[in-house]
Amino acid sequence: MHATPDRQSAVPYCCQWASAHLASKIIHGELTLADDPAWRESGAHDVEEYAHWANHVCGMACLSMVLAARGAGRHPILELARRSLPYGAYTVDGDRIKGMIHAPFVRYVAEAFGMDARVHVGLQAAELPALMEQAEFFMASVHPWIRWPDREPPRKGGHLVLLTRAAPDAVRFHNPSGEPGAQADVELPLAAFDRYFAGRGVAILPAASA
Fold first, then answer.
1. Spatial separation of the C-alpha atoms in residues 120 and 113, rounded to whole Å
2. Residues 188, 128: contact at Cβ < 8 Å?
3. In a domain, 210, yes or no
4. Global pTM?
5. Gap between the Cα atoms of 69 and 181, Å rounded
6. How far apart are CA 126 and CA 36, in angstroms?
7. Contacts of 84 (CB under 8 A, 6+ apart)
8. CB neighbourhood size of 4 (10 A)
9. Residue 66, domain CATH
10. What is the mean pLDDT of the chain?
11. Which of 7, 15, 25, 192 could make an SS bond with 20 (beta carbons 3.0 to 4.6 A apart)?
């Protein structure tokens, strides 16, 4: 796996944690979310809300990137998550947060942003290049250990990354919970990506022409 920091992506990167440069410390438990110095940038009402939600908003980080790429400006990801709740994109039961749930998310982005999105399940990694010929982006469900492609994941899924390109030999994606240096424009061989890919996700179709 490698990132391409020498080439600025056409898709702005957004980390699910407010301090992208401190992601490694957050991942390895060296920095608690309550101590993230940039938590206010997330759109959280307070640091407690940020700490409660930040590990669950990879999908909203992907949405924020799509909106920024389409010239809609920067949308704080906790604000996006809050707006999605009436649609059922997350379910909250006490301290437990479940989501992002794909079908309600599709309804949310259609109504809130006029975005044409489709849920896909039962996909093979080999089908991603053909899918990306039709889609502008694909929010792919992968195991979070995709940040460490030398490790065998215990299962597939549980995290979302934003695919910006898929070819028969490799995919390129932004990882909202990647280690610094491997967050934006990460490239991974398709066969390696398949070890983490759960075969489902949300395709974002091109915006309709005016």
1. 20
2. no
3. no
4. 0.93
5. 21
6. 39
7. 60, 90, 100, 104, 105, 108
8. 12
9. 3.90.70.10
10. 94
11. 15
Please count the structural domains in the chain. 1
Distances, alpha carbon 129 to alpha carbons 23, 49, 134, 165, in Å:
30, 38, 9, 8
Q: Confirm whether 138 is domain-assigned.
A: yes
Tens-digit pLDDT profile for residues 145-164: 999 999 999 999 999 999 99
Q: Which amino acid is at 142?
A: V
- Residue length of the chain: 210
In a domain? residue 105: yes
Which tokens sit at 155? 């299962």
Measure Cα distances from 89 to 56, 72, 100, 109, 171 in Å: 11, 21, 5, 10, 27
Instruction: Domain of residue 69: give its range.
Output: 20-204
Has residue 209 been placed in a domain? no
**Can you give 131-193 as a three-state secondary structure string?**
HHHHCCEEEEEECHHHHCCCCCCCCCCCEEEEEEEECCCEEEEECCCCCCCCCCCEEEEHHHH
45 vs 202: CA distance, rounded Å: 28
